[in-house]
Amino acid sequence: MKKNIKIIGGLLLSATLFLTISGCSKFLDRQPLTATLNDLNQGALESQSLGLYNALRNGANSSLPWLDFNSIRDDDAQKGSSTTDGAEINTEFETFQYTKDDWATDWYWSDHYNMLNLCNKELHWADSLKVTDPASLRNIGEAHFFRAYAFFDLVKAYGQVPLINFYYTNAADGIKPKASIAALYAQIDNDLDSASKLLPLNWVVGGTNRYPGRLTSGAANTLWAQTYLFRGQWAKVVALCNTVISSGQYTLDPSFTDIWKDGLNGAGKNGPESIFEMQATCGANGTNDNGADGWGTSQNVRQGGATVAWNLGWGWNVPTKVLQNAWDSTDPRKSMTILYSGQSDGGPSTGGYGATLPPYAPGSGLDQPYWNKKVYSDPAMRQYTGKINSNGGADWINHRILRYADVILMLAEASNELGDGATAAKNLELVRNRASGNLGAGRTIVPTIAFVSQAQMRTAIKNERRWEFAMEGYRFYDLVRWTPATDGIDAPNALGGLGYTPKNALYPIPQPAINLSGGVLVQNPNY
Amino acid sequence: MKNYYEPDQGIQVFLIYLTLDNKSMKKTKPESAFNNSGILKVLLFMKLTVAILLISLVQVSAKGLAQSKVSLKLNSVELKKVLIQIEKKSSYRFLYNDDAISLTNPKVDINVENMLVTDVLNSIFAGTNLTYKELGHKLIVLSAKDNLIADIKIIGRVLGSNGEAVPGATIRVKGTTVVTSADVNGYYSIVAPDNATLVISSVGFDQKEIAIGGKKEINVSLKESEKVLDQVVVIGYGTANKRDLTGSIVKVSGKEVADRPNTNPIASLQGKVAGLYVVNNGDPGAAPDIRIRGTVSIGQVHPLYVVDGIFNDNIDYLNPNDIESIEVLKDPSSLAIFGVKGATGVIAITTKKAKVGQTTINFNTSYGFKKLVDKIKLANASQFSTLFAEENANNNVSTPDYSALTANTDWIDAVTRVGNFSNTGLSISGSTEKNKFNFGASYISDQGIVKNQELSKIILSLSDEFKVSKGIKLGVNFNTARTHNPYDATWVLNSARQVMPQVSALPQTFTVADPYTGVVGPKSIYSGLDVALQSSGVVNPLLQLQNEWDRTIDYNNRYVGSVYTDINFLKYFNFRATWYGDVSTQDKRKYVPLYYAFNPMNNTPYLSSSQTSFTENVNDWKKFQQDYLLTFKRVLGDHSITALGGFTTYYSGSFYRQVSVKQGTDAASLPIPNDPRFWYVSSGPWGVVDPTGTNSSQSEYSTVSAFGRILYNYKSKYYLNASLRNDASSQIPVQNRNQLFWALGAAWEITKEDFMKDQKAFDYLKLKASTGVLGNQTASMLDGTPLPYPSYPNLNTGVNAVFGTNLFAAAQQSYIANPNLKWENVNASEIGIEGNAFNNRLHFEFNYYSKITNNLMTYVDRSAIGLQNELINGGSLKNWGEELSATWNQKINKDFSLSFGGNITFMKNQVVSLASDLPNGFLSRQFMNNGSAESRTMVGQPIGSFFGYTVAGLYQSYADILGSPVASSIGSYRPGDFKFKDIAGPGGTGPDGQITADDRSVIGNPTPKFMYGGTINLTYKRFALGIDVGGVYGNSIFRTWGSLESPFQRVNYAAFKMNRWHGAGTSNWEPIISQGDRINYNGSTYNIEDGSYFRIRNVQLGYTLDPKLLAKCKITNLRLFANIQNLKTWKNNNGYSPEYGGDATAFGYDNGGGAIPMVTTFGLNVTF
């Protein structure tokens, strides 16, 4: 019996110990020693908005996949780099043998949906918090802008895509069939309408721009105008361009090279012509490197067999011989856009720094004859950041996403299509005069083009877009939207020799996305 | 049953009365006669024992009155009355048989004042035929003078052969049920007939019989049993006889790891224990990948280490020489007591403590060499030239002129060396009655086979146990290790194989300017690589290694200690409270100097490292644990019970700080000096703190647990073990915070049954089975990155917005919080049989085990679809298999004995289900460019299965291509490229005439079908030879080198590329040499190699000098030995080694490194 009593006693003691656990709740209550979202009750939307800018720096928006989809596909830009580096990109994007499952293709899709989900989440929060303060409203405007931005990229690249405009956490809820193009554009209009109303005209507080490069209503209106341009809704384009112009926030930079100028302390960035840029920075000795190496580093001169001093980047997105040959050498923009191997970089007057590039000689010299000068890095900045020699790169260069010249040329194009040749000619002249170095009327360089006919003006504007925006990633989608064209400036004409067929206007939807949807998502035609 | 405890004699005596039906109290008249016959003598003795016991029961309350002198005043009373009065007034008690003696006559008068009891007795017995005998414990036996029994009290002490007390040893009078137990210090006392024989036994020792022969003091020395089933093993929160357990615990003696040249003792366990899978690592001090009974989780799979009671996740602070024993706990009935940390198995380490006896000094030292064996084979200079020219021709690219490069360097040789290993230790231990202490100091130096890779470590250990009183002990254990971590050279071997052999490994002298000071002078400079030939990503490993290895300062100081008190009370109870602390600090500073390299093509130097910078890390780890244990242990007739109740708390905190400082080379900057004095933030006017490289991370968690366990057996024939544990964890949301784990085990010792009496084959046979639920405290991302606060998602770091030149931190939580989280649990069960046969020469053990892991804690990564990630419970995993181990011990003659041992484990693993929320329905880990090397964890397949295409051959011609399924969706191709097999179409349909991603399937399983190990030990006179062998069979290795390197890089060719396709019919396996052919960069069966191997793991020859000779030099023992580890490996793969570890869902990758050296050591062990 005593044994039993002791066992019972032991069990009772154990039970007591079990009960002690309740007294240990303090010992067990451990909040993380780092902040979580719940700790940030103030400015939660602000934090999320800032995250959207971070997402803008990802691959699909500012690095190799972006270049593949937007620039390398056209006739004026090619992959560059070396023969073996990224050989698959040549096949996929230069010769239009699109693949359904590869890193660049998958990345482009998922990064855009990532951005969409971030926007949806922020808008969901905003909705549940019922915020009405001005700062939060601006944040909401930013989310709307980025959602429209992502959808616009998707609709241009793929055509119909699932319309994910709601916040969800269960993966199954995100499986949706493709939405119609109209529905997607309706969403874009909706978002940009909100964005243009909620975003500020600028971020100047007390005379200084507190957030250079942050979204404005001007950016929303410019993007909106672009979306109408792609739909051929010319009157809307004109109206929106006029809104941007009349806002008084932007002017054409007097010097074309200054738009691309690189230098210490952000010189050249966010200039008078800038409407929206993906912001990148790198401090002294590589400190504060924000990791946006995709844009500047991916395009700067690749060392190849040259000396290590020319290890400036990976050398993607370079001008083609087609561009070099087609471009009238009297256009000053040509030497400001194309950097030649084996030649002087032209010095400051054409956006150079006084260096001479090693010769084009795969194996012993540079791998490419031409390079994109619009991202050519400043040696002073290379030295300052320590991104030199084997550590080379150009992490600090902004991606100029929206600039005022586009507003001017969109206005010109839309006016011309609406039969307003005078406005078209006037605005075309603004861009051409600036390109000439502001030589004014009667100049022989980039001379004035007078309005003769709608067709003549259309061709002139198309050509102007080619020179003005060379290497900036406009041309492929321009060629696609101009298809079919009587003046021969359209995708089949310009790209047919490279392997382009009508189905290539749309990229196939990545196979992983189709697999994930369990068949709900249907592949684009003819893939 | 009752025992008797008399504190003033310092002896704890257990007297056991087995006649339970006798409920009578003191001096009940026995039924039988009390006479002279031998048999009756025994009976008499029994009766006496009854009486003694009964008296002692009452005694407990009377002991305070114990006096040896009495005052009595009685007239004409019966003798009996006198005795009663004496009993009342003193602590004496009388034993007598009413039938044998008469105490009614004569009547006596007595009047004494303060007289010794013995004198009183002498006086009253004078003239009677009565006499008495004092038995001790103030017991006095009365008898007739002619009938004097020869029962005597024997005292003594039971010691082990090492001189250490054997507490709790059982001392039994042979042929009777009279039994006592030795106390904690081995002392015992027993009353027995002077011609009887004592049988002394204790778990873990061979039983011994000693004839009393009238001796009153008998000290016994017991020999430690070599029989496995008699072992005492460490179980959770205590020790037990292996025989009393229902589970599977394997004990490995410290001797088996002590002399092995492994800085990490766990590495020595490979092949020794059935069910323990050890994948070794050749880097100094690196922890092996260890799994017990399979891969039970998709998160944490390494076992829990319990070192002298403290929970740990590694044991890198111990010297192998300081280990007394290692126990591997595998089954549910042993593991449930570890609750939420039990699922992955436990390795319990007991460190050496002082032995009872004189002061001992032990000195041991070993020294040896580590040598690279099984080098991978790479192209030499002429082979490289052939292949390079052919590749360029294949791609219509002109081969650059590299005639300036004329070396023929074996880059593996250039970066490796013969490394040295040494381990020297001194320990001093001593003990007195009150105090036992042990002190040890040792130094280990362990060089890697890669140049400049060296670990050194100083280890101090101290333990002391102080006996406050008979029942109370206080003790302290303390271990500290100061480790100088090696320069991280784990990347070097892989880097070396990439460099083309034409590049010279030798430095050259150039006159260069110091970029800061402008001072020009000669410098010895290593070659860089010519970028036209070998593009970025390939580096000369010597350039970085030789310039940076001695610029890293990396010390780790670790202090692990415990203080305990141990109290024995109320005879059957023991209470033990222990407070543990484990505090460690890492101080690491890594400096990168400026250094030049030269372009080998044109011999021009350039600044390769153009910044001075350093990173300073200060990391702290704090772990605190407290255990309160109450143990009840009692044998009650045929029932033996050990019950344990306990309460424990655990706290673990990790605190990491890093600061990064950089300085450029512009004229205005002062360089950070190449002097450790200045490698601190704010140490001078140099450098700029890099905000993005400066950060901290910190986390802590705690658990509060209560547990209980009962070990029960009936007649040592039927065994029952039950345990229960509740764990409350700070990491789990409050509503699920408490989780309960349990196990139940039963065993049946068949050889104890009557029907087994007549058989001779088996000396011991036990059937056992156990089942239970274990927990796994794991929360990590799929790649193993821990999530310290699983229910509080952290914010992604590095998420910034940039406006102008300013960074604005954004807040993005990395995943969605899940309020329903709980720990993974494992339903484990085991059935087995173990036994001894052929006069105990053969010991064998067979187990079948099954572990089903449920609620897999899955980090669902939805980033691929742009969605928020989530941590959820879902899915289950099954591991099952069989373990068989056997040993044969035989002494052939006086000089020669041998033993053989072997074990084999069959392992199977299958994913039963996965979380339904997974976007793909499976878990994927992808490596190499574009994720072409893939491990998939998918339902119905083993965890981490390799996934890829099946190579049907190579396209031999364009005609062959045209006649084969189209493969263009996975890359361009041509003759000489892989022809993959058309296995399936979209949605699991059959072959569809196209090679697409759907044609991938499971192509390999990284888990072996079985693993095995064997041991041979031969002893001849004073020579001892031990050989350990082991291996695995049936697993796959995924080789990534020689095929899946980045197509952007030019790396040296593997030698097997000489067999490449270079025209129709030249090969149907090695593809055309071309980095541009992307189809070949898909993971396929080409990458899969057989992981089976057989290895002579260890050979050791030892010689012990003649103790007689040594005695003159005051040396107790002197042993010399030579040891060779990894003497020879028979393997089937191309890598350095067949052993490649990893984490739960991705393991078995050969990435071009991982060499495991052969180590030859010589050693000496002296005891004074």
Give a description of the structure:
The complex is a heterodimer of chains A (527) and B (1168). Residues 1-9 of chain A have low confidence and may be disordered. In chain A, a hairpin with a 2-residue loop joins β2 and β3 (208-209). Chain A has helices at 2-23, 25-28, 44-56, 59-62, 64-72, 87-94, 103-129, 134-158, 181-198, 217-231, 234-246, 293-299, 321-326, 332-337, 379-385, 404-417, 421-436, 454-468, 475-481, 491-495, 511-516, and strands spanning 77-80, 204-205, 208-209, 274-278, 316-319, 338-340, 370-372, 399-403. The termini of chain A are far apart. Chain A is mainly alpha-helical. In chain A, 47% of the residues lie in helices and 5% in strands. Chain A is built from 21 helices and 8 strands. With 1168 residues, chain B is mostly beta strands. Helix content of chain B is 8%, strand content 46%. Chain B has 11 helices and 64 strands. Chain B is elongated. The two termini of chain B are 46 Å apart. The model of chain B is unreliable at 1-66 (pLDDT under 50). Classes of the chains: A mainly alpha (527), B mainly beta (1168).
Summarize the structure.
The complex is a heterodimer of chains A (527) and B (1168). Chain A is mostly helical.
**Total DSSP helices of chain B:** 11
- What is the strand tally of chain A? 8
Oligomer: heterodimer
Number of helices of chain A: 21
Helix content of chain B: under 10%
**Poorly predicted ranges of chain A (pLDDT <50, ≥5 residues)?**
1-9
Q: Span between N and C termini of chain A?
A: 84 Å
Q: Percent of residues of chain A in helical segments?
A: 40-55%
**Main beta sheet strand tally, sense and closure of chain B:** 22 strands, antiparallel, barrel
The overall pLDDT of chain B, averaged over residues, is: 86
Most extensive interface: A-B, 115 and 115 residues
C-alpha geometry of chain B: elongated
